[in-house]
Specification:
- With 501 residues, the chain is of the alpha/beta class.
- It is built from 15 helices and 25 strands.
- The protein has a 5-stranded mixed beta sheet. A 4-stranded mixed beta sheet has the order 2-1-10-9, sandwiched between helices.
């Protein structure tokens, strides 16, 4: 079966050519304009000797050129390798080499790190977006080619995007996600939030991350909806975009909702909002309740991974949701909770095991890593590394990452449970719980927290506060107070960095 994901853009441009697709603070682009520009890029890429199956890396923020590059790459039958713009030279070189990329489209204003990376790899042609003088071909030059209107009729199972995982265990590895997998995911996940043609979704999540790419960008194109693009998350920029573009749908991570819940939004009209989704990490109940009370809309929590092309589960609706649950599997996705021998476990919170998945949107495998692919898909199920349980109604609850589990004196301690408690403390803004080696108990519990403005409390005060509110083997014996917790590209708190320090 031939199928190219870029057909979504072509269909949207046919049905609504003059409809605004991308809205920015400085302007907008219609579906027809993006379709034409990406067609010109596809022609240029083919003219530079790239052939179907080749990889093109894209290191850009949320700018129009990212969207044009994405669909141009797909139209040419190539695969995109999205990279975080914050990567340094050694990291860029690693990704280019590991992915076998033949071209890198990058911002001219971040050229120094790229130039250093290109000295470490061979056969990668750079293309610069922006006005700085790099000596590299400019992105605008590529857009001078004719749009031959051709979309490469590849196979539905061809790799569309090579998504590099965060690398929390070992070096990052590329999950191969096909055209069909991305199509199914964005088609099904978006349906949970309604399909109003007048919807405008916030695009503050980075497009280089699967959440922003699939659940925001692809979903908008699939259903011919508009997105309001914010280059990076900033509270004032988001509130201004909500008012200016009459945004109806928010997609975010818990730290974004935490910031919005604590923002002074009184000067902005946010009445257009109707629904929000949260993913990337578990959202604390206090954050969820505070945001919903302030803005008057529900947050539907979901769950997914790069390997699942974004969404795997989501709460059904505002009326049917269960707070703190990640919802139910989307259509066509099977989910099990298994023990360490991969045997299915019964329902109930007393039966915590690993979440495993199978279905239409699971990665083809890790690029050039057959052994790791086989381990991840043992028994025909993808092993997520996340621990959780399922209730009798089919709702799933994530307890923690398998590797984040703390075993103190032979007893399991789930960091998320302790973090939920810490978020109830009136002085704490953000919290993360980790284990540190302990000769007597194996591991000891440490909490790292940041405080609300004006809070006056010590780590010892917080330890004492937790003692009466959680089992004795679970409360943190040490609380470290920091100005800010380390976060990844989407704003997710990175426990790994805390453990390393």
């Amino acid at each position: 079966m031939s199928f190219n994901l870029a057909i979504m853009l072509r269909e949207a441009a046919k049905s609504a050519p003059d409809k605004r697709f991308l809205r920015f603070a400085t302007g907008s682009m219609t579906f027809a304009e993006v379709d034409e520009a990406s067609g010109r890029l596809a022609t240029a890429l083919r003219g530079r000797g790239l052939t179907p199956g080749d990889k093109v890396a894209v290191r850009l923020a949320n700018v129009p050129e990212f969207v044009i590059a994405y669909f141009g790459i797909l139209k040419a039958g190539l695969a995109m390798v999205p990279l975080n713009p914050l990567l340094k030279a050694d990291e860029i070189a690693y990704h280019l080499d590991d992915s076998d990329s033949r071209m890198l489209i990058t911002s001219a204003f971040m050229a120094d790190e790229v130039a250093a990376a290109l000295n470490k790899v061979e056969g990668v042609a750079p293309v610069a977006v922006g006005a700085a003088d790099t000596g590299w071909p400019g992105f605008e030059e590529l857009l001078e080619a004719d749009d031959d209107r051709d979309i490469w009729p590849g196979a539905a199972d061809d790799t569309a995007v090579l998504l590099y995982t965060s690398g929390t265990t070992g070096r990052p590895k590329g999950a191969e996600v096909s055209h069909f997998q991305l199509y199914m995911n964005c088609s099904l996940a978006a349906e949970r939030f309604g399909l109003d043609e007048n919807d405008v979704a916030l695009a503050a999540l980075p497009f280089f991350h699967v959440y922003g790419l699939s659940s925001v960008l692809n979903a908008a194109v699939r259903h011919a909806r508009c997105i309001s693009v914010v280059p990076r998350f900033d509270v004032e920029a988001v509130l201004s975009a909500i008012e200016r573009d009459r945004i109806t749908i928010l997609a975010g991570v818990p730290t974004m909702y935490h910031a919005l819940a604590n923002a002074d939004a009184g000067a902005h009209d946010t009445s257009s909002l109707r629904i929000a989704s949260s993913g990337g990490a578990a959202i604390p109940e206090r954050v969820l309740r505070a945001f919903e009370q302030k803005y008057g809309i529900p947050i539907l929590e979901g769950y997914g991974l790069s390997e699942s092309a974004s969404t795997a589960t989501v709460n059904p609706s505002a009326d049917e949701r269960k707070v703190l649950s990640i919802g139910k599997p989307i259509w066509g996705i099977e989910l099990r909770i298994v023990d360490e021998s991969d045997h299915p476990l019964p329902n109930g919170p007393e039966h915590i095991g690993e979440i495993v998945l199978r279905g239409h949107n699971l990665t083809k495998g890790y690029y050039k890593r057959p052994d790791e692919t086989a381990r991840a898909f043992r028994g025909g199920w993808f092993h997520t590394g996340d621990l959780g349980y399922q209730d009798d109604e089919g709702f799933v609850y994530v307890v923690d990452r398998k590797k984040d589990l703390i075993i103190r004196g032979g007893l399991n301690v789930y960091p998320r449970e302790v973090e939920e408690l810490l978020y109830r403390h009136p002085a704490i803004a953000e919290a993360a719980v980790i284990g540190r080696p302990d000769e007597r108990l194996g591991e000891e519990i440490v909490a790292v927290v940041s405080l609300r403005n004006g809070a006056d409390v010590t780590g010892d005060d917080i330890v004492e506060w937790t003692k009466d509110r959680i089992a004795s083997y679970k409360y943190p014996r040490e609380v470290r107070i920091v100005a800010e917790l380390p976060k990844g590209a989407t704003g997710k708190i990175v426990r790994r960095l805390l453990r390393e320090t």
